[in-house]
Design a protein that fits this description.
The chain has six helices and no strands. It is mainly α.
Length: 181
C-alpha cells in the first residue's frame, strides 16, 4: 500500500468521497443516456453501432413508379427513434471518450493504491478499470466493422466499467469512514 486511505487526512478522504459521488452521479446519467440511445440488449447495441443503419441514410434515386398504401401506425411507433452511430461519430466518440476514460481509470487507480487490499486484488482492480473502456470501444468498432454479434463485447465493457467503479467506491467509502485501524 503506497498510502493508507483509512487513516489519511480528513481533507483527502473528503476529496475522494466527493470525487466518487460526482463520478457515480455522472455514471448514472451516462447509463441513462446509453439506455436512451443504444439500449442494453445486444440487438439494440448491434443496431446502433452495426452497419445496418448507414444505408438508410444514403439518398437513393426515386423509383420509376410509385404505389401508395395505407396502414395503421400507433403513436408508440411514431415516437420510436432509431439512433445510429455512423463511422464519423464513432471516430469522434473514441477520440473524446478514450482519453477521459483513461484519466478516470487513473484517478480510481490512485484510490485503489490507498486501499487495504492485497497486491493481487489491487492489480486486478486496476486492470479492470483500464480494460473496461477498451472492451467498450473494441466492441463498438468490431460491431461496426465485423459483425453486430460483437455488441455483447460493448455491453461487457459497460458493465465492467460499472463494476470497477462500484468496487472502488464501496471499498474506499467503507475503509475511509467506517473501518479504521
Amino acid at each position: 500500500m503506497l498510502y493508507d486511505l483509512r487513516n489519511s487526512d480528513l481533507r483527502l478522504r473528503w476529496l475522494v468521497t466527493l470525487f466518487l459521488a460526482t463520478l457515480g452521479t455522472s455514471y448514472l446519467f451516462g447509463a441513462w443516456m446509453v439506455g436512451l440511445y443504444a439500449g442494453f440488449s445486444p440487438r439494440k447495441v448491434g443496431e446502433t453501432y452495426g452497419p445496418a443503419g448507414e444505408t438508410s441514410m444514403v439518398m437513393q434515386m426515386p423509383p420509376e413508379t410509385t404505389m401508395v398504401t395505407e396502414h395503421h401506425v400507433s403513436m408508440a411507433e411514431m415516437d420510436e427513434e432509431q439512433h445510429h452511430v455512423d463511422m464519423d461519430l464513432l471516430v469522434q466518440d473514441t477520440h473524446v471518450h478514450m482519453p477521459m476514460y483513461a484519466v478516470l481509470a487513473a484517478c480510481l487507480s490512485v484510490i485503489v493504491l490507498g486501499l487495504a487490499i492485497s497486491r493481487t486484488a489491487a492489480l486486478a482492480t486496476i486492470t479492470l478499470l483500464f480494460a473496461a473502456p477498451w472492451l467498450d470501444f473494441a466492441g463498438m468498432w468490431l460491431t461496426k466493422l465485423v459483425s453486430p454479434h460483437f455488441a455483447i463485447v460493448t455491453l461487457a465493457g459497460g458493465w465492467a466499467m460499472a463494476l470497477g467503479y462500484l468496487i472502488v467506491a464501496v471499498l474506499a467509502t467503507y475503509q475511509m469512514w467506517w473501518r479504521k485501524t
